[in-house]
Amino acid sequence: MSTVLVVEDSAPQREMILGLLQDNGLTVLTATNGNEALECVKQAVPQLVITDVVMPVMNGYELIRELRKPEAATADVPILVCSSKGEAFDEQWAKRQGATDYIVKPFEPQQLIDKVTALLKG
């Protein structure tokens, strides 16, 4: 069973994504900001990270850069950005930081599941 780390500061969004992933048989860890996410990956390295961009303490771009450091256990873990920032520039910038894929909120539940499934298959 694959483990997914969801990094989202909005409780309703986090709970919705958590439920959706659990309903599809995934183990889900959650964090409310980048610092919590980094602590989480020290305990267990997930097979996928889903992160928001706009968060307190450490934003999603900063988190991606930390997760992508060559010495990090997460250097090769796929990262899906899930953000309300929907301009092409936002997606390009996220990918330049090391994101694997990008989905814009609001999204259809099946759209998220399709992306997660594809990323977990590699």
TrEMBL record:
<dbReference type="InterPro" id="IPR050595">
    <property type="entry name" value="Bact_response_regulator"/>
</dbReference>
<feature type="domain" description="Response regulatory">
    <location>
        <begin position="3"/>
        <end position="120"/>
    </location>
</feature>
<dbReference type="InterPro" id="IPR001789">
    <property type="entry name" value="Sig_transdc_resp-reg_receiver"/>
</dbReference>
<dbReference type="InterPro" id="IPR011006">
    <property type="entry name" value="CheY-like_superfamily"/>
</dbReference>
<feature type="modified residue" description="4-aspartylphosphate">
    <location>
        <position position="52"/>
    </location>
</feature>
<keyword id="KW-0902">Two-component regulatory system</keyword>
<dbReference type="Pfam" id="PF00072">
    <property type="entry name" value="Response_reg"/>
</dbReference>
<keyword id="KW-0597">Phosphoprotein</keyword>
<dbReference type="GO" id="GO:0000160">
    <property type="term" value="P:phosphorelay signal transduction system"/>
</dbReference>
<protein>
    <submittedName>
        <fullName>CheY-like response regulator receiver protein</fullName>
    </submittedName>
</protein>
